[in-house]
Write a structure and sequence with these properties.
26% strand, six-stranded mixed β-sheet, 38% helix, four-stranded antiparallel β-sheet
């Protein structure tokens, strides 16, 4: 990767109690770049994202965001620096309206209302029709769109997405992937993506890293990894 790095992770080790999950993980994300983290269930993908966000503290290693060491910072400070995080499982506030959910995501902006109306609805027009509706009454796909929209309204420089298309019908999966690509292209957002669909995630991504038992075992462009027979073996275990 050429040019400055938005995110740089160096030799990250993370454990739950005596169980080691991440083992010397190093990778980077550049400006306006979509980078995929691939691997089987249990490889450590979600733990890696949680460690970057300070939700699961790393035991050793370093995380830099825009050349600033953010290792060990509280999660709210990491988010305030310009990182949006959309965890796995449609984490929205079901008793709040769509508008209230979005305002929470834009709380770091001086004019949350302006951000909510001017940018988000271009990507998620359906949410503009649901502003007064409670989040818990939306369909599963709409809830996932709301979760991603809430991650974008704070105007992040890096958006971290954990399984954004999990459990969604194919048409919605394609819509969400299109939104991710446009956010990168039009808003200049760098994206770190964990996704189960190997082929689709690598077609969307500029580069990818394959995680296996807590270690990076393969890396390359999306095209290179798709052509590498070891990618499918590491990802699927076959």
């Amino acid at each position: 990767m050429n040019g400055p790095r938005v995110l740089h992770v160096e030799q990250l080790d993370t454990a739950y109690g005596q169980t080691q999950i991440l083992r010397g993980v190093s990778f980077e994300v550049g400006p306006r770049e979509i980078v995929a983290i691939l691997g089987r269930n249990g490889a450590g993908k979600t733990t890696l994202l949680r460690s970057i966000m300070g939700l699961t503290p790393a035991r050793s290693g370093r995380v830099d965001f825009k050349a600033r060491d953010i290792t060990g910072l509280p999660t709210y400070e990491i988010a305030a620096l310009g990182i949006g995080y959309v965890p796995q499982g449609k984490h929205i506030f079901p008793r709040l309206t769509v508008a209230e959910n979005l305002r929470l995501g834009a709380r770091l902006q001086r004019s949350a209302e302006k951000v909510v109306r001017s940018e988000v609805f271009a990507h998620f027009p359906v949410l503009g029709e649901r502003l007064a509706q409670h989040g818990g009454t939306l369909s599963g796909g709409e809830q996932q769109m709301l979760a991603i929209a809430r991650g974008l309204v704070g105007d992040p420089e890096l958006l971290i997405l954990d399984e954004p298309s999990e459990g969604l019908q194919p048409s919605l999966v394609e819509a969400i992937r299109g939104i991710i690509a446009r956010a990168c292209r039009e808003q200049g957002v760098a994206v770190l993506l964990v996704e189960q669909n190997l082929v689709q995630s690598l077609r969307l991504s500029h580069r990818g890293y394959v995680l296996e038992t807590g270690r990076i075992v393969l890396e390359g462009s999306g095209t290179e990894l798709l052509a590498n027979p070891h990618t499918r073996k590491a990802f699927l275990g076959v």
